[in-house]
Write a structure and sequence with these properties.
elongated; 84% helix; mainly alpha
Amino acid sequence: MTTVYLWLKALHIIAVVAWFAGMFYLPRLFVYHIEATSDEVKKTLEVMETKLLRVIMNPAMIATYVLGTSLLVSNSAFLKNGWMHAKLLLVLILGGYHGFLSATRKKLAAGTCKYTSKQMRLINEIPTLLLVAVVILVVVKPF
């Protein structure tokens, strides 16, 4: 492996970790937002949610996709493996989950979100399940 490939891989892993950190934390903020009774607390949470999405999650997602694509371009042999196809499908689902979180933030800010805090706690488990599946695919390469 070349040094450039290893740098791309390291940066990709860093971006993935940052992206997942946001996907683990943002729904937790949503739980607090849904349960908040004070308008002041809701406004504070809206600022936190917006900054988390715009400053951490969006750039980390973009970096994850750009660096992951760069890794595939530099080593296209991975595309011949079934595990990589499954991983890419899960990464696309993660992108959809990210979009869902972004839309939910807007609904919370507008006061139109219909989710309960219990539902949001369950929704918060989605990235954990996807992370477990992606790590197993990448490390074990089962097919």
